[in-house]
Amino acid sequence: MPPIQILPSLLAADMGALAAECQRAESAGADGLHVDIMDGHFVHNLSYGPDIVRMAKKACKLPLSVHLMVTHPHHLASAFLDAGSSLLMIQIEAASPPMPILRAIRERGRRTGVVLNPETPLEAIDPVLELVSEVLFMTVHPGFGGQAFIPTVLPKIKALRARKPDLDISVDGGITMQTAKLCAEAGANVLIAGTSLYKAVDMKAEVSAMRGMAQAAAPA
Ligand code: DX5
Ligand code: ZN
To answer: From edge to edge, which strands make up the β-sheet containing 168-172?
Structure first.
């Protein structure tokens, strides 16, 4: 299994101090920064545009994991690549055909990702699996931070890990010390957490505790 990575999700950061919040994640020893893009259509919420990714790129050196929760990613992918995304992830349920977008991301030398909602069957990503660097399992219904973890996703993580021992598998939504352990046991190696890291009293201590716990829980 690839190394455990801990990624704070900027959605839970202080909106009035975003550059400092990017730096706080970097100083806390995070492996990357997760940035959620919501279009008010694919999900019932609006968040950031490419300028926030550009800001994050300037503010810190962390790789930027950009999660497009948008209906038409083909209209937006290039703007988020221009802005400095290291990894660009599209939802498999979106309206745009995924293959041309994933190929375009690869052609720009960036990492590709596909995301599945909690109810989406694993088979849905079969056609794109060979083109992705990372598969993200949503462990809440996308759109908002601070929701409760949905444990029925765990068997899907386990099934994919059994098929793909070297793939980066991430989880996003309701990730705390407790749920991170369950995800790591199931085979997820990239843990994305908004509330539990940004609202922690000491983010650095939390990142390092989550990493240690996940490393111990991961299947050999
Ligand atoms: C939810 C987003 C998540 C969100 C997670 O739609 O994709 O990245 O920030 O927030 P928490 O960790 O608070 O559930
Ligand atoms: Zn996300």
So the answer is: 5-8, 190-193, 168-172, 134-138, 111-116, 87-91, 64-69, 33-38
Sign for the CA dihedral angle at 67, 208, 188, 153 comes to negative
Residue 78 near residue 68 (C-beta atoms within 8 A)? no
What residues have their beta carbon closer than 5 A to ion ligand 2?
36, 67, 172
Q: Which atom of ligand 1 is nearest to the CA of 67?
A: 7
Global pTM value: 0.98
Tens-digit pLDDT profile for residues 104-139:
999 999 999 999 999 999 999 999 999 999 999 999
Question: Which of 36, 171, 199 has most ligand 1 atoms within 8 Å of its beta carbon, as the pocket-test mutant?
Answer: 36
pLDDT digits (tens, 9 = 90+) for 74-86: 999 999 999 999 9
Helix residue spans in 28-152 (DSSP H): 50-59, 73-82, 98-107
Ligand 1 and 140: CB distance under 6 A: yes
Name all domains of the chain by residue range, CATH numbers in brackets: 5-217 (3.20.20.70)
